[in-house]
Specification:
Order of helices and strands: EEEHEEHEHHEH
Number of strands: 7
Radius of gyration: 13 Å
C-alpha cells in the first residue's frame, strides 16, 4: 500500500514506534479496517513491539475503532510487547471510562509521559 494512502503518521523513537492518525474523525468502517491493518503490519514487524498510539487531533472515535484498539492490544500482548495510548480528547476519554477500557489500556496525558513509561 503506498504511503500516500496511509491513514497513519508513523515515527520511530529508538525501540518505540509512535502512530498518529491523519483523520480527526475515526468513524468510517473502511478507514478503521485500514488503520487496523496498518498497525498490525507495524506490530508484526517488531520482535516485542513498543507501540504508542497518539490521539492528538482526534475528535471522534467510533465503537468499531474501539474494537480495533482491543484487537491491537491483544496482538501486542501476544507478542510480549507494550502498548500505550496518549493525548486522548476528554470527550473520547469519557467513553473509555464508561466502557472500562481505561482499565485495559495504559493511557497517558501526553506522548512524552507515555514514552517514559515503556520498560
Amino acid at each position: 500500500m503506498p504511503a500516500s494512502d496511509s491513514r497513519l503518521k508513523v515515527k520511530r523513537d529508538g525501540a518505540i514506534v509512535e502512530v498518529q492518525f491523519r483523520d480527526r474523525n475515526i468513524l468510517d468502517e473502511a478507514n478503521i479496517q485500514q488503520i487496523g491493518e496498518e498497525i498490525r503490519a507495524i506490530i508484526d514487524a517488531e520482535p516485542a513491539p513498543r507501540l504508542l498510539i497518539n490521539f492528538t487531533d482526534v475528535d471522534h472515535l467510533s465503537s468499531a475503532a474501539l474494537g480495533t484498539l482491543i484487537t491491537i492490544n491483544n496482538r501486542v500482548r501476544t507478542l510480549k510487547g507494550q502498548l500505550r495510548l496518549s493525548n486522548i480528547d476528554p470527550n473520547i476519554y469519557q467513553v473509555f471510562q464508561i466502557t472500562k477500557l481505561n482499565k485495559l489500556f495504559e493511557i497517558h496525558d501526553n506522548a512524552d509521559k507515555a514514552r517514559l513509561s515503556f520498560k
